[in-house]
Task: structure prediction
Amino acid sequence: MTALAPAALQSAPATSTPGGSGIRERSLTWMALPALLLFVAFGVIPLLGVLVLSFTTWDGIGQIHPSGFTSWRAVLSDPGLPHALWVTFLVMALTWLVQTPMSILLGAFLAGHQKYREVLAVLYFIPLLLSSASLAITYKALLDPNFGLGAGLHLPILAQDWLGRPVLALGVVIFVVSWQFIPFHALIYQGGVRQIPITMYEAAVIDGAGRVRQFFSITLPQLKYTIITSSTLMIVGSLTFFDLIFVLTAGGPGDATRVLALDMYITGFQANLMGPASAIACILVLVGLALALLLRRLGGDPSASQLEGA
Amino acid sequence: MATATTTPTATATASGRTSGGRKAPERGSQMRGTVRKNWAGGALSYVWLLIVLVPIYWIIITSFKPQSDYFSSNPLAPPTAPSLTNYALVVESDFPRYFLNSVIVTVGSIVPAVVISFLAAFAIVRGRGWALKATNSLFLMGLAIPLQATIIPVYLIIIKLGLYDTLGAIILPSIAFAIPLSVLVLSNFIRDVPKELFESMRMDGATDWQTLWQLAFPLTKPALVTVTIYNGLGIWNGFLLPLILTQSPEKRLLPLGLWTFQGQYSVNVPAILASVVLTTLPILVLYIIGRRQLMSGLTAGFSK
Result:
């Protein structure tokens, strides 16, 4: 694989004679082609394909039959859809509410250059290295009401049936997500805080502003665009918590944690209803795009955000 | 990014030791904590450290406990007689095969993904014309689309290509999904290379191809490391693509293998945790090697 890509491109210098800008442009466009082709094949075409498939009937193995609006009618009349949308929204809103304040505070603290804060940042990052599957398996064992941490330490409060009760299971999902991703967002905020000109704080100190006052009058307003970037990543990312929830609760108990992405998987690959599953996928894409656009609006000046269009 | 460090006070007040090998936006250190101790922030950060480390500590000590100890001992006490039985059990299972599969898929995806993203980023920054502009917009749009949503057509395409239940089935979409963010981060870095350097290369009669490898490539190294680790992490830990695009046990990757382990040895928690440790180890090594560049690359990419 390593040798393949550069070898295939060895012909490039032959076509690009320096000087003539027309030829140069063409050769440069050609450099973007491999990425473009792969992205079109496995990104753009599937995106259109999901729309097409939502108007068909397919069991995942046999023939695909066009079937008009059958799938859409089935999906839109299923009470499972509003429920999945609601759970998705809950997970999104609650993970945002937990993660954002925590990440900003930790990020602002980590922005200091003291050695021990650097060490803290290194340790904080470890949860990000674990896969969602590993995490889900770990927390499942850790929270087991009979053999987990609570039972072992004889702490009844920790020995709840965490994954067996709807509200608790949702809480666990939100906790595990926060546990994994707060460090990442804290890091983004750390970078954001470090870009705030130090003179602003010096002026505030001369004016007699305390640390809390500095935080609310300087740090927070200056972080506006960082907050939008981080929130965009959090919110669009929350649509993709498929694997964690799949392994941790499989959507249960009942359908308490059945988010949209999981609903799509279960409908398509367990119930073998690819048409309705594609319709759910379309809804997922629409939700993602709508949220991204909304957040971009909130950002005001789009050039200030790194994730243009996202 | 690449903001010049215009405030010499920043390094003076903060510990100068730490800012040695960094290039990232090292600016105002706010003098927090040096002027007056920030007790509240300190307390919060140590509470969070505890929350982060307790589960990790538990994973590690439990993976060295014999299965019988797991049910009887205090869960947070270190093992009285640490044993490697769990690790032996994991290594003797199908785990090494899953491990090899994961290595093949991760390396086989990242190397082409980073190379073609780098080429595309260079073309987008240095080239002109509507085609490149449109390509760039397409990639940016790709950042907003949740991967899962396209999985059913991807599954169909993989079947039609005759790749179902092969490692290639995971590699191709993994490359494609890595492209948008990689191009974004890399093009941001290439854009920061002073235009004069490109011009002088051109004056010397260098082709674009030479400029690409001799100028842009070395100057973009931190971004390349960032993109490699970031994508490597995502692919190594990926669950959905292997779950849907493969079927046979010989083609399983680690996360999927862990999931089936958990079904098989549900009572043997220490063995499962030993496999969690072994799964994470390569990523940990990669993180330790590339940490500084990853951090500065991520902050440069997102913290504007």
Notes: The mean pLDDT of chain A is 82. The longest helix of chain A spans residues 80-110.
